[in-house]
């Protein structure tokens, strides 16, 4: 299955590149002036593309009198991202609210991993090429649904949230058995080409829009219909990195804020940045139209994350109950006003 999907990716030109670099190296303490950032795939990581393209971390580091070395890695799936963060291989992790809540719960009172910022608000679609699947109640053993990480990714958690609404909390993981861990580019390639056992994908932009170019692919569930407008993707770090590297951490926050303003206010330039940094094979005009969608908001302020947190505690997926979104977000010099 994995080999087939890789061939499809290459032939369609969606290109998946897992740049692991030093991720396999033993963890070493990082001195002030270095930051290692792990991201994944899609427009939801556009702010990081802008930060990288314009060297904004380096810019704000120099304003504080330090040279900052920035290393970038690309992985797929919240489980891999969390492992990299906890092993000390990366300092900033980019993943969904699902993986963040998992690692926040796991490190509570120890490494104390918390979110640094949101990467924006975006709808994500659960797609299927099975004409008999109109709602999540129609999925069966004949279906396989791609998610970045089974049971952990934000897409998996959204699916569980939907299942709980459909069948009750005790059945929240009812659809997990139909899911497979497949990177977004590979899953998109499979849906576009057809002919594989993979006929479903809980996606993200722009991959979900690309997959819909196949007339047999349709939307089964929109995350905004499930939870309302929300921030599906976050950046997070350990308390130690934040405390030991205050200047580097501050430069990172300043860089993110500038990137958010840039992306929100100049969609054409943001689209050019995405294409340039990711080398995505996507039509520029189509991309501009996509990110100009009023449902897309590039901001570091988290929105509507708490319902998922409360749900995961209620069903026993996390052990510690956050009293509010502020429990799993760092509160810095300029506290975020989120939800």
From TrEMBL:
SUPFAM superfamilies: Periplasmic binding protein-like II. Transmembrane segments: none annotated. Keywords: Signal. It comes from the Bacteria. This is Nitrate ABC transporter substrate-binding protein. Residues 1-31 form the signal peptide. Pfam families: NMT1_2.
């Amino acid at each position: 299955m994995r080999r087939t999907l890789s061939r499809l990716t290459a032939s369609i030109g969606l290109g998946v590149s897992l740049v692991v670099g030093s991720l396999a190296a033993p963890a070493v303490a990082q001195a002030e002036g270095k930051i290692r950032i792990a991201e994944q795939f899609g427009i939801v990581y556009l702010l990081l593309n802008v930060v990288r393209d314009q060297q904004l971390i380096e810019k704000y580091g120099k304003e504080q009198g330090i040279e900052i070395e920035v290393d970038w890695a690309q992985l797929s799936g919240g489980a891999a991202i969390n492992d990299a963060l906890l092993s000390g291989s990366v300092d900033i992790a980019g993943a969904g609210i699902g993986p963040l809540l998992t690692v926040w719960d796991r490190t509570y009172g120890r490494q104390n991993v918390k979110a640094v910022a949101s990467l924006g608000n975006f709808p994500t679609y659960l797609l299927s090429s099975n004409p008999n699947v109109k709602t999540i109640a129609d999925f069966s053993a004949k279906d396989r649904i791609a998610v970045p990480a089974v049971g952990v990714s934000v897409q998996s958690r959204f699916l569980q949230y939907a299942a709980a609404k459909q069948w009750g909390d005790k059945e929240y993981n009812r659809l997990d058995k139909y899911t497979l861990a497949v990177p977004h580019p590979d899953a998109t390639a499979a849906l576009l080409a057809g002919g594989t056992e993979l006929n479903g994908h809980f996606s993200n932009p722009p991959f979900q829009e690309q997959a819909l170019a196949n007339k047999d692919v349709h939307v089964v569930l929109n995350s905004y219909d499930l939870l309302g407008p929300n921030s599906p993707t976050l950046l997070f770090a350990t308390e130690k990195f934040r405390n030991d590297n205050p200047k580097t951490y501050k430069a990172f926050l300043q860089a993110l804020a500038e990137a958010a303003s840039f992306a929100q206010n100049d969609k054409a330039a943001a689209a050019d940045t995405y294409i340039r940094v990711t080398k995505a094979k996507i039509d520029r005009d189509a991309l501009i139209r996509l990110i100009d969608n009023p449902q897309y908001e590039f901001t570091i302020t988290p929105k509507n994350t708490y319902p998922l947190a409360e749900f995961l505690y209620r069903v026993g997926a996390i052990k510690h109950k956050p009293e509010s979104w502020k429990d799993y977000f760092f509160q810095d010099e300029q506290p975020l006003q989120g939800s």
